[in-house]
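Good day; I would like, with your permission, to put a structural problem before you. A protein sequence and the structure tokens that stand for its backbone fold form the material at issue. I would ask you to consider whether the tokens describe a fold that such a sequence might reasonably adopt. I set the record out below, with my sincere thanks for your time.
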Amino acid sequence: MGISDTLLKQRLRNRLIESLDAFVDEETVSVVGTDEIIECWYDYMDEDRLAFYDEPVFSSDEINAIKLFHNLLESSYQKVPSTWKIEELKECAEWSTLVTAACEAYSIFLKRGFFDEE
């Protein structure tokens, strides 16, 4: 017997929160690099999965934050340098915009925090 959809959504919600945090955390960037951070987001989010992320596990504000961040990433990821060096990202407007958006989305998710995974 598999896990319930609710539990699966709770786990995926937590992974999305961690993914948003990775965009914001310069130490994570310097360890895994921009490509891996972007790929991690796509491990949990794409257009087909969005409909699965629904209430009550995801609030309407969280769903909107996911959509906004995902659309921004879709329109800008190709302009982000493949790097582990924060210095190389300082002049990248697209990365800066992604970090700001990730920070905003992260704070929306933290209002309700991480959910139980068991």
Observations:
- The chain has a mean pLDDT of 96.
- The helical segments are 5-24, 26-44, 47-50, 60-76, 86-89, 93-110.
- The two ends are 14 Å apart (CA to CA).
